[in-house]
Amino acid sequence: MAEIARLGRTLRAWRQQFLAYFDTGGVSNGGTEAINLLIEKTRRLAHAGPRQSRWSCGQDQADGPRDVASVVSQGCGDVGVSRAA
């Protein structure tokens, strides 16, 4: 019964936003939010320091970042791929 009461409170709190979906014909800003998320992820990856790098190929993180050419020449296949999503 507690779950139903919580659902009722949630629907009451979001009533205007919920009904706005139907008033606008289902229009939302989902596409814009998706693009913003991609931009933010790209920005974070571009500013990632050596300690945030996940593709060091055995390099000690304290040595600093590596240039892409040296990483590729050593055969590291996941250059630029972040596993910390």
Short description:
This protein has 85 residues and is mainly α. 52% of the residues lie in helices and 0% in strands.
Structural class: mainly alpha
Q: What fraction of the residues are assigned to beta strands by DSSP?
A: under 5%
Shape: elongated
**SSE pattern, N- to C-terminal:** HHHH
Radius of gyration in whole Å, from Cα?
22 Å
Number of strands: 0
pLDDT averaged residue by residue: 75
| Percent in helix | 40-55%
Weakly predicted, low-confidence segments: none
Tally of domains: 2
> Biggest β-sheet, characterized?
none
Number of helices: 4
What gap, in angstroms, lies between the N and C termini? Answer: 37 Å
What would you note in describing this structure?
The protein is mostly helical. The chain has two domains: 1-47, no CATH class; 50-85, no CATH class. It contains four helices and no strands. The protein has helices at 2-13, 15-23, 30-46, 68-73.
Q: Can you tag this structure with a few keywords?
A:
4 helices, mainly alpha, 2 domains, 85 residues, single chain
What secondary-structure arrangement, pairings included, does this model have?
Blueprint: H1 2-13, H2 15-23, H3 30-46, H4 68-73
